[in-house]
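Translate structure to sequence.
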């Protein structure tokens, strides 16, 4: 493997993994925009990831040739065996397992180790080189149980029935996971969605992920009207909280579902009243546990807090290498600004 301006390049196979620029052949781990870019020639991915790409960028830009690779299926290209296994990040997310001349490298993409009712659980694969993310690669990041965080949301709904609870959640993966967790906790009322979340929730439903009754946030009867949906749950992109759209809602409790809500300053800066620490990435302990499970003597870190993780690996006798891939962390749970890191490490 070689690091290029386009991203990770498999030399003998002559293809890229999650390239940042259009290339002749790309293997895509999942549908978030910092990994799945438009206008490649040939795209290999899971059926779900290709469906997400078509929704987000249009069928004509999701790869001129789109090849579905089933989980566990082996595709050979220029002598390199390519296999996809679940990454547990979002629906259809995969690790890419490459075997060539007796050596194996696994590119994790983004991943989490917690159970998620909307996607398959991460599967560790023993390898010679493991390529990992490190979004939450600091010891301070130890994610609580997601079910307990949903319990905090339900308790707030009980305490403030006169207010709408507006949960900021990313459109792909996080929104659907929050909905599914609410259903598991017994919330059977309609969940209301900002228009930006509708298409991907409908796609999840079409792919067999049951989300229960959903509805778009209604338009007020008169211009400038508000006070809608008291006592209800509304999901919206995090950016919606700063727009006039939010005035439709009844004195909203601003919530946010993100691993970064572990950092008080982050929540305060964003005006979050009820931070929900729900992450779709591995935390510090899970990163280290995963490295131990795959038994790789060498670990490459694509993005995140690579310095801390590489140092921790060295103490365990594992060779670490920071790749500094450009363009990663632009979506799902973006990189922490310096002041957030300062607080987290204090």
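Result:
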């Amino acid at each position: 493997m070689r690091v290029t301006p386009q991203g990770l390049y498999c030399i003998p196979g002559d293809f890229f993994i999650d390239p940042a620029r259009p290339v002749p052949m790309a293997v895509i781990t999942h549908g978030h925009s910092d990994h799945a870019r438009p206008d490649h020639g040939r795209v290999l991915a899971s059926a779900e990831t290709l469906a997400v790409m078509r929704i987000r960028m249009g069928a004509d830009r999701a790869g001129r040739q789109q090849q579905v690779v089933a989980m566990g299926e082996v595709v050979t290209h220029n002598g390199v065996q390519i296999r996809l296994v679940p990454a547990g990040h979002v629906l259809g997310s995969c690790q890419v397992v490459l075997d060539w001349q007796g050596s194996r490298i696994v590119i994790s993409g983004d991943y989490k180790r917690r159970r998620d009712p909307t996607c398959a659980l991460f599967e560790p694969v023993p390898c010679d080189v493991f390529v990992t993310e490190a979004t939450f690669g600091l010891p301070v990041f130890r994610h609580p149980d997601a079910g307990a965080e949903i319990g905090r949301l339900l308790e707030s709904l009980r305490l403030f029935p006169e207010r709408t609870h507006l949960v900021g959640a990313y459109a792909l993966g996080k929104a659907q996971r929050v909905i599914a967790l609410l259903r598991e906790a017994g919330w059977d009322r309609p969940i209301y969605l900002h228009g930006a979340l509708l298409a991907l929730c409908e796609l999840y439903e079409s792919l067999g992920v049951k989300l229960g009754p959903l509805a778009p946030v209604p338009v007020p009867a008169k211009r400038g009207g508000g006070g809608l949906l008291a006592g209800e749950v509304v999901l919206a992109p995090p950016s919606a909280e700063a727009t006039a759209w939010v005035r439709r809602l009844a004195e909203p409790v601003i919530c946010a579902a993100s691993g970064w809500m572990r950092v008080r300053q982050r929540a305060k800066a964003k005006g979050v009243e009820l931070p929900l620490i729900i992450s779709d990435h591995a935390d510090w302990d899970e990163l280290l546990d995963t490295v131990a499970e795959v038994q790789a003597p060498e670990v490459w870190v694509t993005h995140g807090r690579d310095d801390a993780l590489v140092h921790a690996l060295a103490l365990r006798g594992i060779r670490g290498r920071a790749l500094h891939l450009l363009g990663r962390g632009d979506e799902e749970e973006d990189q922490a600004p310096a002041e957030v890191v300062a607080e987290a490490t204090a």
